Amino acid sequence: MSVSWSGAAGSDSRGGGLLAEDTKRNGRDGGAAARRRVRRGITEAGLTFLVLACLILTNVAAARVAPVIDLTRDKLYTLSSQTEQLLSGLESDVQVLVFAGQDAFYRQDLGGLLAEYRRTSPRISYEFVDPSLEPALAQAHGVTQTDIMVIITGERKRQVPVLLLFAPGDHPDGIKFSGEQALNLAILELTREHVRPVLFLVGHGEPDPFEEFPALIEALRRELYRVDSLNLARKPIPEDTALIIMVGPHQDPSPAEIEALDGWLRSGGRLMILLDPAPPGTFPQLVQFLARWGVEVHDDVVVDPERALFMDPMTPVARLDWHPLTEALIARDLLVAMPRSRSMAAGSAPDGHEVQTVFGTSEAAWGERDLTGAEPKNDPQDVQPPFSMALAVVAKQQDGESVEPRLLAVGSSGFIHPSVAEFQGNTDFFLNALNWLAGEEQQMTVRPKQRIYQRVFLTPQDARFVFNTTVIALPLGSFALGILAWLRRRNK
Fold it and tell me: What CATH number has the domain spanning 81-169?
Protein backbone atom coordinates (compact mmCIF):
# COMPACT_ATOMS: atom_id res chain seq x y z
CA MET A 1 0.00 0.00 0.00
CA SER A 2 1.48 3.26 -1.03
CA VAL A 3 1.13 6.56 0.81
CA SER A 4 1.04 9.87 -0.94
CA TRP A 5 3.41 12.00 1.09
CA SER A 6 2.80 14.92 -1.20
CA GLY A 7 -0.93 14.98 -0.21
CA ALA A 8 -0.03 14.81 3.44
CA ALA A 9 2.48 17.52 3.02
CA GLY A 10 -0.11 19.66 1.23
CA SER A 11 -2.57 19.06 4.00
CA ASP A 12 0.01 20.00 6.62
CA SER A 13 0.86 23.08 4.66
CA ARG A 14 -2.79 24.15 4.54
CA GLY A 15 -3.22 23.43 8.24
CA GLY A 16 -0.15 25.48 9.06
CA GLY A 17 -1.50 28.32 6.96
CA LEU A 18 -4.81 28.22 8.73
CA LEU A 19 -3.06 28.17 12.09
CA ALA A 20 -0.91 31.11 11.10
CA GLU A 21 -3.96 32.97 9.86
CA ASP A 22 -5.85 32.26 13.10
CA THR A 23 -2.86 33.37 15.10
CA LYS A 24 -2.61 36.56 13.11
CA ARG A 25 -6.36 37.17 13.42
CA ASN A 26 -6.24 36.51 17.15
CA GLY A 27 -3.32 38.91 17.40
CA ARG A 28 -5.28 41.58 15.57
CA ASP A 29 -8.34 40.95 17.76
CA GLY A 30 -6.24 41.03 20.92
CA GLY A 31 -4.63 44.27 19.86
CA ALA A 32 -8.00 45.82 19.12
CA ALA A 33 -9.34 44.68 22.50
CA ALA A 34 -6.29 46.11 24.21
CA ARG A 35 -6.74 49.37 22.39
CA ARG A 36 -10.41 49.44 23.37
CA ARG A 37 -9.47 48.82 27.00
CA VAL A 38 -6.96 51.66 26.86
CA ARG A 39 -9.49 54.00 25.27
CA ARG A 40 -12.10 52.99 27.84
CA GLY A 41 -9.62 53.55 30.64
CA ILE A 42 -8.67 56.96 29.29
CA THR A 43 -12.37 57.88 28.92
CA GLU A 44 -13.19 56.76 32.46
CA ALA A 45 -10.16 58.58 33.86
CA GLY A 46 -11.16 61.71 31.96
CA LEU A 47 -14.73 61.50 33.22
CA THR A 48 -13.51 60.97 36.79
CA PHE A 49 -11.21 63.98 36.50
CA LEU A 50 -14.05 66.06 35.01
CA VAL A 51 -16.44 65.11 37.82
CA LEU A 52 -13.81 65.92 40.45
CA ALA A 53 -13.06 69.25 38.78
CA CYS A 54 -16.78 70.10 38.70
CA LEU A 55 -17.15 69.20 42.38
CA ILE A 56 -14.15 71.34 43.34
CA LEU A 57 -15.34 74.31 41.28
CA THR A 58 -18.87 73.96 42.69
CA ASN A 59 -17.58 73.97 46.27
CA VAL A 60 -15.34 76.96 45.60
CA ALA A 61 -18.22 78.86 44.01
CA ALA A 62 -20.56 77.90 46.84
CA ALA A 63 -18.07 79.08 49.43
CA ARG A 64 -17.64 82.43 47.70
CA VAL A 65 -20.96 83.42 46.19
CA ALA A 66 -23.69 81.01 47.24
CA PRO A 67 -26.11 82.29 49.92
CA VAL A 68 -25.78 80.84 53.40
CA ILE A 69 -29.06 79.40 54.69
CA ASP A 70 -29.53 79.49 58.46
CA LEU A 71 -31.89 76.66 59.40
CA THR A 72 -31.54 77.06 63.19
CA ARG A 73 -34.74 77.85 65.06
CA ASP A 74 -33.46 81.11 66.58
CA LYS A 75 -31.32 82.16 63.56
CA LEU A 76 -28.10 81.73 65.51
CA TYR A 77 -25.95 82.36 62.44
CA THR A 78 -27.86 85.28 60.92
CA LEU A 79 -26.70 88.85 61.50
CA SER A 80 -29.27 91.48 62.40
CA SER A 81 -30.15 94.27 59.98
CA GLN A 82 -28.50 96.73 62.39
CA THR A 83 -25.22 94.82 62.18
CA GLU A 84 -25.38 94.68 58.39
CA GLN A 85 -25.97 98.43 58.28
CA LEU A 86 -23.05 99.04 60.63
CA LEU A 87 -20.69 96.85 58.60
CA SER A 88 -21.74 98.38 55.29
CA GLY A 89 -20.76 101.81 56.59
CA LEU A 90 -17.26 100.90 57.78
CA GLU A 91 -14.62 103.22 56.38
CA SER A 92 -11.58 101.54 57.98
CA ASP A 93 -10.37 97.98 58.39
CA VAL A 94 -11.24 96.14 61.60
CA GLN A 95 -9.13 93.22 62.81
CA VAL A 96 -10.34 90.80 65.48
CA LEU A 97 -7.84 88.63 67.38
CA VAL A 98 -9.26 85.94 69.67
CA PHE A 99 -6.69 84.68 72.17
CA ALA A 100 -7.98 81.23 73.03
CA GLY A 101 -6.73 77.73 73.70
CA GLN A 102 -7.12 75.00 71.13
CA ASP A 103 -9.94 73.36 73.11
CA ALA A 104 -11.94 76.53 73.91
CA PHE A 105 -15.63 75.63 74.03
CA TYR A 106 -16.72 78.82 72.24
CA ARG A 107 -14.69 78.38 69.07
CA GLN A 108 -17.71 77.21 67.05
CA ASP A 109 -20.09 79.97 68.17
CA LEU A 110 -17.61 82.83 68.05
CA GLY A 111 -15.88 81.55 64.93
CA GLY A 112 -19.20 81.23 63.11
CA LEU A 113 -20.18 84.77 64.11
CA LEU A 114 -16.86 86.23 62.98
CA ALA A 115 -17.11 84.34 59.70
CA GLU A 116 -20.49 86.01 59.08
CA TYR A 117 -18.95 89.42 59.82
CA ARG A 118 -16.14 88.75 57.33
CA ARG A 119 -18.60 87.45 54.73
CA THR A 120 -20.70 90.61 55.13
CA SER A 121 -17.83 93.12 54.98
CA PRO A 122 -14.38 92.76 53.38
CA ARG A 123 -13.07 95.22 55.97
CA ILE A 124 -13.42 92.58 58.71
CA SER A 125 -10.66 90.05 59.36
CA TYR A 126 -10.24 87.69 62.27
CA GLU A 127 -7.85 85.09 63.64
CA PHE A 128 -7.77 82.70 66.59
CA VAL A 129 -4.44 82.86 68.41
CA ASP A 130 -3.15 80.46 71.05
CA PRO A 131 -1.22 82.72 73.47
CA SER A 132 0.88 79.78 74.68
CA LEU A 133 2.17 79.26 71.12
CA GLU A 134 2.51 82.95 70.23
CA PRO A 135 3.37 84.76 73.50
CA ALA A 136 5.02 87.67 71.68
CA LEU A 137 1.80 88.53 69.82
CA ALA A 138 -0.21 88.32 73.03
CA GLN A 139 2.26 90.58 74.82
CA ALA A 140 2.17 93.09 71.96
CA HIS A 141 -1.59 93.49 72.47
CA GLY A 142 -1.45 93.56 76.26
CA VAL A 143 -3.05 90.13 76.66
CA THR A 144 -1.96 88.32 79.81
CA GLN A 145 -4.50 85.47 79.81
CA THR A 146 -6.61 83.39 77.47
CA ASP A 147 -10.25 83.99 76.52
CA ILE A 148 -9.69 87.60 75.43
CA MET A 149 -10.92 89.11 72.18
CA VAL A 150 -9.04 92.17 70.89
CA ILE A 151 -10.74 94.43 68.33
CA ILE A 152 -8.30 96.67 66.44
CA THR A 153 -8.81 99.50 63.99
CA GLY A 154 -5.91 101.75 63.13
CA GLU A 155 -4.03 102.62 66.31
CA ARG A 156 -7.04 102.03 68.54
CA LYS A 157 -7.96 98.74 70.18
CA ARG A 158 -10.33 97.34 72.74
CA GLN A 159 -10.29 94.12 74.77
CA VAL A 160 -13.45 92.11 75.39
CA PRO A 161 -13.47 89.11 77.80
CA VAL A 162 -15.00 86.27 75.79
CA LEU A 163 -16.47 84.41 78.77
CA LEU A 164 -18.67 87.42 79.58
CA LEU A 165 -20.42 86.91 76.25
CA PHE A 166 -22.12 83.78 77.59
CA ALA A 167 -24.84 83.76 80.22
CA PRO A 168 -27.61 81.41 81.37
CA GLY A 169 -30.60 81.55 79.05
CA ASP A 170 -34.30 81.85 79.71
CA HIS A 171 -34.68 78.14 78.96
CA PRO A 172 -33.23 75.68 81.52
CA ASP A 173 -31.05 74.17 78.78
CA GLY A 174 -30.34 77.48 77.03
CA ILE A 175 -27.22 79.64 76.86
CA LYS A 176 -27.35 83.27 75.77
CA PHE A 177 -24.57 84.45 73.47
CA SER A 178 -24.13 88.24 73.19
CA GLY A 179 -21.17 88.21 70.82
CA GLU A 180 -22.94 90.30 68.18
CA GLN A 181 -23.78 92.99 70.75
CA ALA A 182 -20.22 93.14 72.07
CA LEU A 183 -18.64 93.29 68.61
CA ASN A 184 -20.99 96.04 67.43
CA LEU A 185 -20.39 98.21 70.49
CA ALA A 186 -16.63 97.72 70.26
CA ILE A 187 -16.61 98.66 66.57
CA LEU A 188 -18.78 101.72 67.26
CA GLU A 189 -16.56 102.80 70.13
CA LEU A 190 -13.42 102.48 68.03
CA THR A 191 -14.81 104.19 64.93
CA ARG A 192 -16.83 106.98 66.55
CA GLU A 193 -15.11 110.32 66.92
CA HIS A 194 -16.96 111.57 70.00
CA VAL A 195 -19.64 110.56 72.50
CA ARG A 196 -22.87 112.56 72.26
CA PRO A 197 -24.85 113.49 75.38
CA VAL A 198 -28.36 112.31 76.22
CA LEU A 199 -30.05 114.76 78.59
CA PHE A 200 -32.87 114.02 81.05
CA LEU A 201 -34.97 117.09 81.82
CA VAL A 202 -35.37 117.97 85.51
CA GLY A 203 -37.12 120.71 87.42
CA HIS A 204 -40.72 119.55 86.90
CA GLY A 205 -40.94 116.82 89.51
CA GLU A 206 -39.36 114.17 87.25
CA PRO A 207 -37.68 111.24 89.01
CA ASP A 208 -33.90 111.41 89.31
CA PRO A 209 -32.77 109.08 86.49
CA PHE A 210 -29.52 108.16 88.24
CA GLU A 211 -31.38 106.98 91.35
CA GLU A 212 -34.59 105.60 89.81
CA PHE A 213 -33.23 103.98 86.63
CA PRO A 214 -29.61 102.93 87.30
CA ALA A 215 -29.83 99.88 85.00
CA LEU A 216 -31.08 102.01 82.10
CA ILE A 217 -28.40 104.62 82.70
CA GLU A 218 -25.76 101.90 82.55
CA ALA A 219 -27.34 100.53 79.38
CA LEU A 220 -27.18 104.00 77.82
CA ARG A 221 -23.51 104.26 78.68
CA ARG A 222 -22.89 100.89 77.07
CA GLU A 223 -24.63 102.29 74.00
CA LEU A 224 -21.88 104.96 74.00
CA TYR A 225 -23.92 107.93 75.18
CA ARG A 226 -22.92 110.41 77.86
CA VAL A 227 -25.87 110.72 80.24
CA ASP A 228 -26.59 113.95 82.12
CA SER A 229 -29.50 116.02 83.41
CA LEU A 230 -30.66 119.44 82.19
CA ASN A 231 -32.71 122.16 83.89
CA LEU A 232 -33.95 124.40 81.09
CA ALA A 233 -34.70 127.18 83.57
CA ARG A 234 -30.97 127.45 84.26
CA LYS A 235 -29.12 126.28 81.14
CA PRO A 236 -29.75 126.32 77.38
CA ILE A 237 -29.66 123.13 75.34
CA PRO A 238 -26.05 122.25 74.37
CA GLU A 239 -25.48 122.19 70.61
CA ASP A 240 -24.07 118.64 70.49
CA THR A 241 -27.04 117.11 72.33
CA ALA A 242 -28.17 113.84 70.74
CA LEU A 243 -31.51 113.61 72.51
CA ILE A 244 -33.63 115.15 75.28
CA ILE A 245 -35.87 112.93 77.42
CA MET A 246 -38.70 114.07 79.68
CA VAL A 247 -39.78 111.25 82.00
CA GLY A 248 -42.99 111.50 84.01
CA PRO A 249 -43.15 115.23 84.94
CA HIS A 250 -45.52 116.32 87.72
CA GLN A 251 -45.51 120.03 86.88
CA ASP A 252 -46.06 121.91 83.65
CA PRO A 253 -42.95 123.45 82.04
CA SER A 254 -42.88 127.22 81.80
CA PRO A 255 -43.69 128.98 78.49
CA ALA A 256 -39.99 129.87 78.13
CA GLU A 257 -39.00 126.20 78.49
CA ILE A 258 -41.66 125.12 75.99
CA GLU A 259 -40.37 127.70 73.48
CA ALA A 260 -36.82 126.44 73.99
CA LEU A 261 -37.93 122.85 73.30
CA ASP A 262 -40.03 123.93 70.31
CA GLY A 263 -37.21 125.94 68.75
CA TRP A 264 -34.67 123.18 69.31
CA LEU A 265 -37.04 120.58 67.82
CA ARG A 266 -37.73 122.72 64.73
CA SER A 267 -33.99 123.14 64.16
CA GLY A 268 -33.57 119.35 63.90
CA GLY A 269 -33.57 118.27 67.55
CA ARG A 270 -34.82 114.97 68.94
CA LEU A 271 -37.23 114.71 71.86
CA MET A 272 -38.84 111.87 73.85
CA ILE A 273 -41.72 112.64 76.23
CA LEU A 274 -43.11 110.00 78.60
CA LEU A 275 -46.28 111.60 79.97
CA ASP A 276 -48.24 109.75 82.66
CA PRO A 277 -52.00 110.14 83.22
CA ALA A 278 -52.94 113.23 85.22
CA PRO A 279 -56.11 115.20 86.04
CA PRO A 280 -57.30 117.66 83.38
CA GLY A 281 -55.44 120.97 83.37
CA THR A 282 -52.22 119.60 84.89
CA PHE A 283 -50.07 120.22 81.79
CA PRO A 284 -51.67 122.99 79.69
CA GLN A 285 -48.37 124.21 78.18
CA LEU A 286 -47.09 120.70 77.44
CA VAL A 287 -50.42 119.56 75.99
CA GLN A 288 -50.54 122.57 73.66
CA PHE A 289 -46.93 121.99 72.62
CA LEU A 290 -47.66 118.35 71.70
CA ALA A 291 -50.83 119.40 69.85
CA ARG A 292 -48.77 121.81 67.70
CA TRP A 293 -46.68 118.81 66.68
CA GLY A 294 -49.72 116.64 65.86
CA VAL A 295 -50.07 114.65 69.10
CA GLU A 296 -53.44 114.94 70.86
CA VAL A 297 -53.16 113.62 74.43
CA HIS A 298 -56.24 112.62 76.42
CA ASP A 299 -56.84 113.09 80.13
CA ASP A 300 -57.54 109.44 80.84
CA VAL A 301 -55.99 106.10 81.72
CA VAL A 302 -56.11 103.18 79.30
CA VAL A 303 -58.13 100.12 80.35
CA ASP A 304 -57.75 97.03 78.16
CA PRO A 305 -59.43 93.87 79.52
CA GLU A 306 -58.49 91.90 76.39
CA ARG A 307 -54.71 92.50 76.50
CA ALA A 308 -54.18 92.78 80.26
CA LEU A 309 -50.88 91.82 81.86
CA PHE A 310 -51.41 89.37 84.73
CA MET A 311 -55.17 90.09 84.56
CA ASP A 312 -54.62 93.80 85.33
CA PRO A 313 -56.59 95.73 82.67
CA MET A 314 -54.82 98.97 83.64
CA THR A 315 -51.50 97.42 82.60
CA PRO A 316 -52.20 96.78 78.93
CA VAL A 317 -49.86 94.83 76.68
CA ALA A 318 -49.36 97.07 73.65
CA ARG A 319 -50.53 96.04 70.19
CA LEU A 320 -47.40 96.79 68.18
CA ASP A 321 -47.76 98.53 64.82
CA TRP A 322 -45.12 98.02 62.13
CA HIS A 323 -42.55 100.77 62.68
CA PRO A 324 -38.74 101.00 62.81
CA LEU A 325 -39.08 101.12 66.61
CA THR A 326 -41.04 97.88 66.80
CA GLU A 327 -39.69 95.88 63.84
CA ALA A 328 -37.17 93.91 65.92
CA LEU A 329 -39.70 93.34 68.72
CA ILE A 330 -42.28 91.95 66.28
CA ALA A 331 -39.67 89.74 64.62
CA ARG A 332 -38.77 88.18 67.98
CA ASP A 333 -42.35 88.11 69.28
CA LEU A 334 -41.55 90.33 72.28
CA LEU A 335 -44.26 92.15 74.19
CA VAL A 336 -44.28 95.65 75.71
CA ALA A 337 -46.29 96.28 78.89
CA MET A 338 -47.55 99.82 79.57
CA PRO A 339 -48.71 100.24 83.19
CA ARG A 340 -51.07 103.18 83.75
CA SER A 341 -50.86 104.75 80.32
CA ARG A 342 -52.84 107.65 78.94
CA SER A 343 -54.20 107.45 75.42
CA MET A 344 -53.38 109.76 72.53
CA ALA A 345 -54.42 110.30 68.94
CA ALA A 346 -52.81 111.64 65.77
CA GLY A 347 -53.68 115.27 65.09
CA SER A 348 -52.55 117.83 62.55
CA ALA A 349 -48.74 117.81 62.21
CA PRO A 350 -46.71 120.82 60.99
CA ASP A 351 -46.19 121.14 57.25
CA GLY A 352 -43.73 118.60 55.91
CA HIS A 353 -44.21 116.27 58.89
CA GLU A 354 -46.33 113.23 59.64
CA VAL A 355 -47.58 111.42 62.74
CA GLN A 356 -46.95 107.68 62.89
CA THR A 357 -48.55 105.16 65.22
CA VAL A 358 -46.02 103.08 67.14
CA PHE A 359 -48.38 100.96 69.21
CA GLY A 360 -51.95 100.93 70.42
CA THR A 361 -54.51 98.69 72.13
CA SER A 362 -57.16 96.11 71.34
CA GLU A 363 -60.64 97.10 70.18
CA ALA A 364 -61.94 96.20 73.65
CA ALA A 365 -59.96 98.99 75.35
CA TRP A 366 -61.17 102.40 76.39
CA GLY A 367 -59.75 105.54 77.96
CA GLU A 368 -61.15 105.87 81.48
CA ARG A 369 -61.72 109.54 82.29
CA ASP A 370 -62.55 108.92 85.94
CA LEU A 371 -59.12 109.19 87.58
CA THR A 372 -60.36 109.04 91.17
CA GLY A 373 -59.35 105.40 91.54
CA ALA A 374 -62.87 103.97 91.32
CA GLU A 375 -63.52 100.65 89.59
CA PRO A 376 -63.09 101.39 85.84
CA LYS A 377 -66.23 101.13 83.76
CA ASN A 378 -66.69 101.94 80.10
CA ASP A 379 -69.04 104.92 80.18
CA PRO A 380 -70.22 107.06 77.24
CA GLN A 381 -67.96 109.95 78.28
CA ASP A 382 -64.84 107.76 78.15
CA VAL A 383 -62.46 107.78 75.18
CA GLN A 384 -63.30 105.03 72.69
CA PRO A 385 -60.88 103.23 70.37
CA PRO A 386 -59.08 103.40 68.10
CA PHE A 387 -56.35 105.34 69.86
CA SER A 388 -52.64 104.96 70.52
CA MET A 389 -50.30 104.78 73.48
CA ALA A 390 -47.22 105.92 71.53
CA LEU A 391 -46.92 108.26 68.54
CA ALA A 392 -43.88 109.38 66.54
CA VAL A 393 -43.62 112.63 64.59
CA VAL A 394 -41.10 112.65 61.74
CA ALA A 395 -40.30 114.74 58.70
CA LYS A 396 -41.67 113.45 55.42
CA GLN A 397 -39.28 112.09 52.82
CA GLN A 398 -38.02 114.75 50.43
CA ASP A 399 -35.99 113.75 47.36
CA GLY A 400 -35.08 110.46 49.02
CA GLU A 401 -33.61 112.09 52.10
CA SER A 402 -35.22 112.55 55.48
CA VAL A 403 -35.20 116.07 56.89
CA GLU A 404 -35.44 115.63 60.65
CA PRO A 405 -36.56 116.47 63.57
CA ARG A 406 -38.04 113.55 65.45
CA LEU A 407 -40.47 113.46 68.36
CA LEU A 408 -41.73 110.43 70.29
CA ALA A 409 -44.63 110.75 72.74
CA VAL A 410 -45.48 107.80 75.02
CA GLY A 411 -48.44 107.75 77.38
CA SER A 412 -46.59 106.14 80.30
CA SER A 413 -43.26 106.32 82.05
CA GLY A 414 -44.01 103.23 84.10
CA PHE A 415 -42.75 100.84 81.43
CA ILE A 416 -39.14 101.77 82.28
CA HIS A 417 -39.64 101.44 86.05
CA PRO A 418 -37.25 98.79 87.43
CA SER A 419 -40.16 96.55 88.42
CA VAL A 420 -41.43 96.42 84.81
CA ALA A 421 -38.40 97.24 82.67
CA GLU A 422 -37.23 93.61 82.58
CA PHE A 423 -40.53 92.45 81.10
CA GLN A 424 -39.81 91.00 77.65
CA GLY A 425 -39.34 93.94 75.24
CA ASN A 426 -39.72 96.96 77.56
CA THR A 427 -36.03 97.82 77.88
CA ASP A 428 -35.40 96.98 74.23
CA PHE A 429 -38.17 99.33 73.16
CA PHE A 430 -36.76 102.18 75.25
CA LEU A 431 -33.22 101.70 73.91
CA ASN A 432 -34.47 101.26 70.34
CA ALA A 433 -36.51 104.45 70.69
CA LEU A 434 -33.51 106.33 72.00
CA ASN A 435 -31.22 105.15 69.19
CA TRP A 436 -33.88 105.79 66.54
CA LEU A 437 -34.47 109.31 67.80
CA ALA A 438 -30.74 109.98 67.90
CA GLY A 439 -30.35 108.76 64.32
CA GLU A 440 -28.26 105.76 65.39
CA GLU A 441 -30.37 103.02 63.84
CA GLN A 442 -27.36 100.72 63.61
CA GLN A 443 -27.25 100.72 67.42
CA MET A 444 -30.85 99.63 67.83
CA THR A 445 -30.74 96.83 70.34
CA VAL A 446 -29.52 93.43 69.19
CA ARG A 447 -30.71 90.83 71.68
CA PRO A 448 -28.37 87.98 72.65
CA LYS A 449 -28.83 84.81 70.65
CA GLN A 450 -29.93 81.82 72.73
CA ARG A 451 -28.75 78.31 71.94
CA ILE A 452 -31.05 75.69 73.43
CA TYR A 453 -29.56 72.23 73.79
CA GLN A 454 -32.35 69.78 73.04
CA ARG A 455 -32.41 66.59 75.07
CA VAL A 456 -33.77 63.25 73.88
CA PHE A 457 -35.04 60.89 76.57
CA LEU A 458 -35.19 57.23 75.40
CA THR A 459 -37.10 54.42 77.03
CA PRO A 460 -35.32 51.03 77.16
CA GLN A 461 -37.41 49.88 74.16
CA ASP A 462 -36.45 53.03 72.21
CA ALA A 463 -32.77 52.53 73.07
CA ARG A 464 -32.85 48.91 71.87
CA PHE A 465 -34.59 49.94 68.63
CA VAL A 466 -31.99 52.66 67.94
CA PHE A 467 -29.13 50.24 68.70
CA ASN A 468 -30.51 47.41 66.56
CA THR A 469 -31.24 49.78 63.67
CA THR A 470 -28.05 51.82 63.58
CA VAL A 471 -25.46 49.33 64.86
CA ILE A 472 -26.78 46.04 63.44
CA ALA A 473 -29.41 46.43 60.72
CA LEU A 474 -27.91 49.27 58.68
CA PRO A 475 -24.33 47.88 58.52
CA LEU A 476 -25.57 44.34 57.72
CA GLY A 477 -27.93 45.70 55.08
CA SER A 478 -25.12 47.66 53.43
CA PHE A 479 -22.87 44.56 53.51
CA ALA A 480 -25.59 42.37 51.97
CA LEU A 481 -26.23 44.85 49.16
CA GLY A 482 -22.50 44.91 48.43
CA ILE A 483 -22.36 41.10 48.20
CA LEU A 484 -25.35 41.02 45.87
CA ALA A 485 -23.83 43.65 43.60
CA TRP A 486 -20.54 41.70 43.49
CA LEU A 487 -22.29 38.43 42.62
CA ARG A 488 -24.29 40.05 39.82
CA ARG A 489 -21.15 41.49 38.27
CA ARG A 490 -19.33 38.16 38.53
CA ASN A 491 -22.09 36.24 36.76
CA LYS A 492 -22.24 38.62 33.79
Answer: 3.40.30.10
